[in-house]
Structures are given as C-alpha cells and as structure tokens.
C-alpha cells in the first residue's frame, strides 16, 4: 500500500500521508522517495493549482524521522548525506510555484515540523494532541532538515532558540501565538479551512508576515546584528550553565542558527548537515538514542506478569501530606481520573486538596489547559475523613507515615472501605511483604514508589511481593503510565532499586563530610560529573530525618557495609532537617538555598580539610554507587540492566549521557572498575569490597548491557 494518496477537487490536491502498518507517520527513506515522486507529479499536473499536505493518522501529523534508520548510520559522511537529502526534499516544497498548505492535526515534531515550516501556510487544530516542536537536541542531534534556519526567520531569534536549544514541544495554541502556525481551528473543519486558505493563496498571493518581537527592545534583539550578538552570547552562557558542557547538540544548534541568520540560509544549511554528521556519530547521541528506545520499550512492558491491566476509574489516596497530595494532583492532571483523598482530620484533607489543586492551577497559568478543562479536573477531586466514596475505588494508594504498624492499619481499613480495590503502598523503605502480612487479600497488595516531587519526578517503581497477583502488577504499571511516569518493576528488597544504589553514594558523601571535606567541593565535583545536584544538597532536599531513617533501614538489612556515617545523627541532634525547616548543610533565605552553612563544621566537630581533588571525590562517590548497582543487579532487584539504568537516570538524575550506572561499568570495563574498587577497599575498608556479580563479569570479560 502507498504511504501517500491524492484527492483533487476544484484544482486543489489533498496529499494524505498514512504510513501503512505504523501507528504514526514518520519520515523513512522510502517515505521520502515516495513523497518526492508524488509531489513532483502534482507539480507537473496542470489541473492541480495548489496542494494541501494532510495526515491519515488519528493523532499524528508527522512524528519526525525514523530513529531506527538513524541508528544504522556508520559514518559522519552517511549522516551528512541523510541531512542534506532531507534539506533538499523540503527545499523543493518551499520553492514550489504552487501554494502548499499544511493541515496539521496531532504530533508535528522534528522533521515533520521542518516540512511544515517550508509550506506556505500552516493550519493547526486546537486539539490537545496537536503539538509542534523540534526535540532533536534531546537525542543529542540538532534540527538538520532546515529547522535551525527557517524557524528563527519565522518567529524571531529568541523565541526560536527557546524551542530549539531545549528541544521543546508546544501545544498548538502557543504555536499560534508564536507565529509557527497561521490559523487555529477545530479538528472538524481542518480540511475545509485548508481548502479556503489554498484558494485565498491562489487569489491573493502569499502574505508577508510581519517581523516578530515585542517593542523596540524585541526588535533590537531579534532583528539587528548587535542585538543578536547579545542573544547568542547569553544563549551560549545559558546552555553551558544548564549542561555543564556535557551535551554538544545545543551549542551545535546555536551555531547553525547563527550561521543561517548572519551568513544566509545556504551557510546555515551547510552548518546543519556538517554538525549533524559529527553529532550523529558521537557517544552522547548514541546514549540518548538508547535511552529513547529503552523508554519506548518500557511503555509496552507488562513487567513479566503476562496479565491484562484492570480499568481504574476511581483512585483513592490515603494520606494528604506532600506525597499524597502530589500523587492525587498528578493523577487528576495526567490521567483525568476521579480521586478521593482521605486523612484522619478534615483540616488535613482540605490542605491536601488545596495542594493538589495547585498543580492544576499551575497548568492553567502556563496555558497547558483551558479554564474549562481546569474546572472539569478540579471537579474530579474530593476528600473525606472517613471511607465515604472509597467503595467505588479501583486502586488505593497509601502515602502515610513511614511506619510498619501504621501502614498495616491503613491496609486493614482500606480492605474494608474499598473492598474491590488494589492496594498500593508508597513506602520507600519497608518491604512490601511485611506490610501485606495478615492482609485479607495479600494478592491485591503491592508497592508503588513515587519520587518527590511527584509532579516533576518521572520515575515510578512498582514492587510486587511474592504473593502479588499478576493483574495487580499489570494494573499498577498501566496506571503509572497514565500518570506520565516511566515505570520499572523492582524486586521486594530493602531500598528497592533507586534507594538501594543511592544509599552508599549518600553514605560516602557523609564519610567525606566527616573527614572535613568542604560541602561545596563535594557537590561541585558531582555536578561537574553530570548529576543535576550534588549529594549534600540532595540530602537537604530529601530531609535529613528521612535520610537518617533510610540509612538505618539499609544498615539493618546489609550490615556494616552500609553503616551510616555519623553526620546525619549529629545534624539532627542540632535540630537540622534540611530545606523543610530551613536549616541543613546549606543556609536558606526566603526559602531559597543561600550557600553552605559555615556552622556545620562546628556541629560535626571537624576541621576543614586541605584541598581534595574533584577526581578523588568523584571516584569515591561514583564507585560506591557502581558497586551497589552491580550487587543489586546480581541479586535480581531489577529484571534487566535496561531497567536498572533507566531507574537511575529517571529516579536520581544519573547523567543520561553516561547511559546509567551499569552502562558506565561496561564503558569503563569491569576489570578497571574492579581494580579501582580494590584500591579503595585497601584504603577505606569493606564498604568498597567488589560485588560478586561484578567479579563474575570481570572474570569472563563480560558486560551487564547488551549493546556495544
């Protein structure tokens, strides 16, 4: 079957793209060849006076290039040729003597938007699934079919850089305000509007678009060489601050944008395909593409249960604190599910509902939802101090105090109040099997471990215990994905996966602090390595009381190897809990971090240590985590290295360009990692004793991950 079909009426041809056998339209090599043939035929047909480009898919215009083809590139020259071919195809659309109108419904991303930008008029539907963007930098590449050149000329330098350098995707309403699309319509009248636009272009010619920019300052910054030089410098500074120089794609995209605006489109296109060739073969892009495929695969993973998920129409949330309110608000915002919040006191219920509603208010303020959508979603939330409304619940998520007896009590009450529901505990430390002991329906009990703050942290760990029913696992996975989470299934072991590998990392930071290593030196070393925040700042964010409790659980489970450093106990004795009470390792002024607190050295009873290299700090912290990841992998805490690496990236911000801890071991080589660990063991003792699984991989010169 062809990917393109043509319908000509009154001299206007509708060229419909519907890629056979695929859920979305994507630009493969075959598609490009077929498009060029079909488009050339329309240009040669004297009965055709204008062309409308439309999609036959229900929710996709064009999702972008075929990433599978991208991974088969072997040389920079091949990558350059791929980019150049895309540029030439799209340039023929732009140069068409016959007007071309893009009728956009659904995702219009990457190469799809680049093709639309070359059309002479763009109409988009106001449907929530119509999103436009250039996400290429998220794969370690840049828009390389003309997007880096055309978008700044269309909407202005600053607005274009905001999209290109961050790989942003915008809803159609925002794209309309920016000037990316020319008309915004209801899906039902998309083609009719496109036909009228084609007729108008034939009658009146192509309209000139006024320059974008807000006032004299906007005109100066977007439209004059001196102003643009200021923008380029600030953009470069911002990219380096955000990426630490670890990600070359945004800087390459900035180079292409600058070349296109300052030296002309031809030089911009040349820069695009040259830099694409370099980036596509680079290690960073290869890792980011691997993460893309792993994330896609996880969306289809049933967790090994083989069961079908049960529908969740009503969600119950028990506990209205920070986590409970975050779960409720995110569930409503992302899954549009009815939510019942419960707590022991009505004032706490009210506070939880208010906090949950704030998430929806934020989406309204950012224009991610309309006022009508906001009202509809707010109406889905209700609360109670009893169990009213819970009998209809399909899933109950408990987010109460981290205490075994309390959680067992809530489970017993939930089994009576929500008799048909699956029960999920949001514990971060307590084994699920212990909570399920004595349950009336233990097969309906499992863990759903969210990360804080729930609305921003993308990972969810689903933890079945030995007796959890397969359909309960499948339901938790499916609902987690409805909430927009990347979900991994984790064995019911202390710390699960994320906290398990994080524990020795944070503990080693505690040992460094106890030795007098400056707070700022520890955190700077690890942010330089690529983590979004350093371990000491992370402890403040999590809460020193929470960190101490988790450390105690891990020590009890794994013995002296994970004996906590004394620093958290001393800080807690001094009344310091971190950001939550404004007193931690850092000072806080007006709720914002204001630098390391010099009083901490006195609390810990240490003298500031002489200079210690960033490399030494990185080695101790990183290798503690790598060793624990290998140990947990050997114990089957995660089902695959893929799951382990994705959990680390999405759960603790492990640097994506490094691929995850198990991938890092493979890059370094297991034998090298073993040598470093043995050296650390000689100096610091048994907490660096190599994991048996790592020793086994080293002996056979093997790998944890499959890919090279």
Mean pLDDT: 94
**In whole angstroms, how far apart are the ends?**
36 Å
CATH topology-level fold name of the largest domain = 2-enoyl-CoA Hydratase, Chain A, domain 1
Q: Stretches where pLDDT falls below 50 for ≥5 residues?
A: none
What count of domains describes the coordinates? 3
The second-level CATH architecture of the largest domain is: Alpha-Beta Complex
| CATH superfamily label of the largest domain | 2-enoyl-CoA Hydratase, Chain A, domain 1
* Spatial arrangement of strands, main beta sheet: 13-12-11-14-15-16-17-18
How much beta, percentage-wise? Answer: 5-15%
CATH class of the largest domain reads Alpha Beta
Characterize the main sheet. Answer: 8 strands, mixed
Q: Sum up the overall morphology in one term.
A: globular
Key terms:
N-(1-d-carboxylethyl)-l-norvaline Dehydrogenase, domain 2, 30 helices, alpha/beta, 708 residues, six-stranded mixed β-sheet, 2-enoyl-CoA Hydratase, Chain A, domain 1, globular, eight-stranded mixed β-sheet, 20 strands
Q: Secondary-structure map with pairings?
A:
Blueprint: E1 4-9, E2 12-17, H1 29-44, E3 50-55, E4 60-62, H2 67-71, H3 76-94, E5 100-104, E6 107-109, H4 111-118, E7 121-125, E8 131-133, H5 147-155, H6 157-164, E9 169-171, H7 172-178, E10 183-185, H8 190-204, H9 215-223, H10 225-243, H11 249-262, H12 265-280, H13 283-298, E11 314-318, H14 322-335, E12 338-342, H15 346-365, H16 371-378, E13 381-384, E14 395-398, H17 404-417, E15 422-425, H18 432-436, E16 445-450, E17 459-464, H19 470-482, E18 486-489, H20 498-514, H21 519-529, H22 535-542, H23 544-558, H24 567-573, E19 586-589, E20 592-596, H25 600-604, H26 614-634, H27 641-652, H28 661-668, H29 670-684, H30 692-699
Helix pairs in contact: 3-4, 3-12, 4-5, 5-6, 5-11, 9-10, 10-11, 11-12, 14-15, 15-16, 20-26, 21-26, 22-23, 23-24, 26-28, 26-29, 28-29
